[in-house]
Amino acid sequence: DGCGHTVLGPESGTLASINYPQTSPNSTVCEWEIRVKAGQRVQIKFGDIDIDDSDSCHSSYLRVHNGIGPNRTEIGKYCGFGFQMDGLITSKSNEVTVQFMSGIHTSGRGFLAAYSTTGKSDLITCLDNASHFSEPEFNKYCPAGCVIPFADISGTIPHGYRDSSSLCMAGVHAGVVSDTLGGQINVVISKGIPYYEGSLANNVTSKVGPLSTSLFTFKTSGCYGTLGMESGVIPNSHITSSSIFEWPNRTGQVNVWKPENARLKRIGPPWAAFISDEHQWLQIDLNKEKKVTGKGIITTGSTLSEHYYYVSAYRILYSDDAHKWTVYREPGMGKDKIFQGNTELYQEVRNNFIPPIIARFFRINPLKWHQKIAMKVELLGCQFSIGRAPKITLPPTPQNKNYEKNADFVDDFLHSVKTSLQTDKTAFTPEIKNATVTPSVTKDVALAAVLVPVLVMIFTTLILILVCAWHWRNRKKKTEDTYDLSYWDRAGWWKGMKQFFPIKSAEHEETPVCYSSSEISHLRPREVPTMLQTESAEYAQPLVGGIVGTLHQRSTFKPEEGKEASYADLDPYNSPIQEVYHAYAEPLPVTGPEYATPIIMDMSSHPSTPLGAPSISTFKAAGNQAPPLVGMCNKLLSRTDSASSAQALYDIPKGQPGLGNANQLVYQVPQSIAHPAVSKDE
Asked: Which domain of life is it from (predicted)?
């Protein structure tokens, strides 16, 4: 009376003490005798041992023996709370006896163990889940009997199962292994999802589950496509039944629930039998030329709330000619397989055929139902086509005198071909194809699988190049001077590109703003006009303090205090006056002239210049003629605000030492502006 959950299969099984995983009752005993095929041995793996060891395994224990009967020999005796045994116990023969004894105790769950034939070193128990393994993909062997009431699973195929679910129980739910046979599973671990659906499949109920860090799925053959009930590939004439339910409604119209109504997910009434008994059936002819590998079936009830009808249990029969029928049984089982049906009228319930059925005709034979036999179905599987013999091409009929000899040759040829065809009739290898994917689609999918990653890589590379170029351009733009000249808008493309090229010759250098008088005196007469004839800037030059460098050094930012002087800070012209002016360029007035305020060069104080010599503007004159050189200024002059006075057409020097009256100042008239009459009183 101490035996709990027990499934003893021909090659594997599961056994547990009574009331597991709750506390086992006192004074109970159970003994299991396990036999496998002759020549094989048995290996046992314990998933949990929790037995009271207060009396040193005297009254409560778990004992394993080699053999059965009085001649058996003990392999080991085990007890203890939370006893861990990671390895496998292997017998010396094909027979093993497991004995559980429970004495007087107050706690202890008992035990749960699994067994299989030797050679399956990857045997696991029904208690193992995906979180017990760290590999992203692994193979394990599940024993029979893992549909246990105390284990839970969450999820379904193809979305996956929560990592806390029992691996073997999920494998039964997915249709990968059979609960009565066990089998190999190939598990793949991936990232979890926020929600796991629940469903009923293969007599296993999957519950709704919350978010988890990981999930697992199973690698399968992929032969789980629908065979045409829902899509309409199977015509109505290929769906028949033992009887049809007909009944008039309130308006007197006769409703007929025909067998063609038994298409899954079709809106409307289902198929229903006229008489509800165990002799009713729904038959589906899959194809007249091809057999189909049946991997499973999905059923629902009536799907009509006012008609609460459904089938709760049924059998599957199959045939190749619709005359001789075979009831589906699992290998090694001596009784028909009873499939669990629906528990209500809406839910879809899936059952898998392990091993699959290869047949043309399928029959569903209801055994249990609620109120009336009514259902909708869909078959799962893939096409199973058999190779055909090659066509025979006869040689042309001879038109000569040796016709009889050739006729004999043709007869011998046909006889040899027929003999070879009869001999090799079973030599053609069956070819399994998926009914849901055509060959052309398969080729397109393979081509797309190659092209899509290549295109993605190309577009990603182009995007990265564009982003890097954009960042480089912005970075270069930030390093440029804030007050740099706007060449791109007004100076033309070539003038804009000139700022990126190094200046090597004096002909392409920009004109310095001013020179010291002592430096000009050392220049030759021909060199001075050359220096002044260089093309002036089209925009205003920045007003800077101290010595002004060449225009290609365009930083007008104020140097930091205390900064060590560089080569640009040295005074190449040895200017005697070092007055400090504003360190930044001033914008041109809105109402001012089109050209920048002329820079005046006063040579009146120069000892080598005649007294009263006119001052010269550095503005470019009309044509290519250079302005006459009379003198150079010693410092920059601030221009007057054109908005302050309408008569201030030219800048008036501020605080120039050594100047006499206004008659000593001569200005060059800017282009396109008339020369005003200047009075001597001005």
From this structure: Eukaryota
